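One chain given next:
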Amino acid sequence: MQIAVSFGCPGCAHPIVLEAITAEARCRACLRTVALDHAAWASFAAKAVARLLAGDKVGRSTNFDRYTVVTRVALAAPTCACGAAIAIDDLDALERCACGAAIAIRRGEDAWLPAAIHDDIVAVIGERAPAAIAPVSPVAFRCACGAGLTTDGTTRAVRCATCGEVDVPLGLWDALHPTLPAPAMYALIGGVA
């Protein structure tokens, strides 16, 4: 079954796309870290999975704390980013797709997975580590006061000699750190793909 989860950052409303089933997510726009404990995952992902397995609609919006979480789940066999089907009969031998891409597999023994997704989870396929905020060649932009500023893209706040600390404009930040599409994460649950 395919799982995709996203929500608006509580700090800036920029979309946060979850790339793995993990205890925290970081907004690529304002760099805020949002904690996602077992209760959070159970409230949006596990409930959506249970509804899907019971025959309910695909995809739901759920309110959790102050967030509106969009969880999409669908009965779908795992595929690689190249579009090729991933054979799941022998997870121990599964390392790479025919295209050469590595296939990330996390076993259901990981304590996070049963609490976050489903008690009968066997594995999650296709998670990816969140991309690091890496420096770029300095980019010039103008402060609201007209002063010339530069950023290397590693922090939203830069120092203006006139105004003090100012944020890199969101449009420029988004160009330096675009929101990536949700990875195709698949949960294998008791034989259901």
The CA atoms of residues 45 and 117 lie 6 Å apart. The radius of gyration is 20 Å. The longest strand covers residues 67-74. Residues 139-176 form one domain.
